[in-house]
Amino acid sequence: MQQEHLFKVLVIGDLGVGKTSIIKRYVHQIFSQHYRATIGVDFALKVLNWDHQTVIRLQLWDIAGQERYGNMTRVYYREAVGALVVFDVTRASTFEAVLKWKDDLDTKVSLGNGKPVPAVLLANKSDQSREGLCSQLPKLDTFCRDNGFVGWFETSAKENTNIDAAARCLVENILANE
Ligand code: GDP
Ligand code: MG
Fold first, then answer.
1. Minimum-distance ligand to the CA of 33?
2. Pick from 65, 89, 56: nearest CA to 15
3. Ligand 2 centroid distance, CA of 12 (Å)
4. Which of 21, 39, 66, 89 to mutate to test the pocket of ligand 1 (most atoms within 8 A of CB)?
5. Contact by Cβ (8 Å): 10, 74
6. Percentage of residues of the chain with pLDDT beyond 70
7. Distance between Cα 22 and ligand 2 center (Å)
8. CA 138 to CA 146: how far, in whole Å?
9. Do 83 and 92 form a contact (C-beta atoms < 8 A)?
10. How far is the CA of 75 from the centre of ligand 2 (A)?
11. Which atom of ligand 1 sits closest to the CA of residue 161?
């Protein structure tokens, strides 16, 4: 019997960290230097033939414009089952914002059993120099454990590095909650 799942996944993090680029790369296999910061919420669908019995439709929710306020409305978070929390390795302030985003996520949505939704941390723009953050990356295992992330990946939307792996990790954790 074929199984189909529809999963709402949020992509959150500060302005300019590469959220839209990651979604475009993952869903449409493209990268551009210029994405217009449209205002509102946008979403894209990625269909994964997970295994012989399972088709997964990932609905990836992008935010545009509102991330400068550092939090989102409950409507945006409603019924999400997972999140990608993104920072930019070239800007330390975006890493500092990660915990604020995680906190916003955990206060506004949780699973039916009350557990937090799985979140994967993305250290994006890994094709660039990691100014100021070189000392942080080796500590990310501990950071993730301490702050409830299920894992972390160094990604590049530009070079298509680790985006599939990060999404796969998130889906595995979402399925474990089914
Ligand atoms: P958002 O505000 O989080 O949606 O960020 P965008 O996706 O709009 O990206 C902001 C800028 O960073 C754009 O100029 C992108 O081209 C650039 N960018 C995004 N991801 C990467 C990446 O992996 N490497 C590099 N070098 N630039 C990136
Ligand atoms: Mg964007």
1. 1
2. 65
3. 9
4. 21
5. no
6. 92
7. 9
8. 14
9. no
10. 18
11. 23
pLDDT for 6-21, tens place per residue?
Answer: 999 999 999 999 999 9
End-to-end Cα spacing for the chain: 17
Q: What are phi and psi of 50, to 5 degrees?
A: -65, -55
**Measuring from atom 27 of ligand 1, which residue has the nearest CA?**
125
The encoded tokens of residue 136 equal 């942080």
Ligand 2: distance of its center to the CA of 136 in Å?
25
Ligand 1 atom showing the smallest separation from residue 14 Cα: 3
Determine which helix (DSSP H) or strand (DSSP E) holds 150, and give its type and residue range: none
Distance of alpha carbon 134 from its chain centroid, rounded? 21
CA atoms of 23 and 44, how far apart (whole Å): 7
Q: Which of ligand 1's atoms lies nearest the C-alpha of 35?
A: 8
**Amino acid code (one letter) for 48:** L
Torsion of CA 158, 24, 144, 131, to 10 degrees: 30
Average of per-residue pLDDT values in the chain = 90
DSSP 109: -
ipTM: 0.99
| Residues in the chain where the model's pLDDT stays below 70 | 35-41, 70, 131-132, 134
